[in-house]
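Following up on my earlier thread - several people asked me to post the actual chain instead of describing it. Fair enough. Here it is, all 67 residues.
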Amino acid sequence: MIKQVKIFLQYLDRDQQGSYFVEMALVVIGVALTVFAAAQSLASEGIAQTYSNIEGKLKDATVPDIP
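Reply from S.P.:
Thanks for posting it. Predicted structure:
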């Protein structure tokens, strides 16, 4: 029984067929989480505040008369 388990574990150690797929899946998940976190941060802190600042400056701007 122990010999069979040892042979099975050696087979699993040599079998690398699915490792590339798992590695790429982990990379995709990491990139997706990073993009999601960046989008959340920009939406709550960066873009909304910048848009409000631009809107305020445009309301105060005067348009010159064109002769």
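Residues 31-59 form one domain. That should answer part of your original question.
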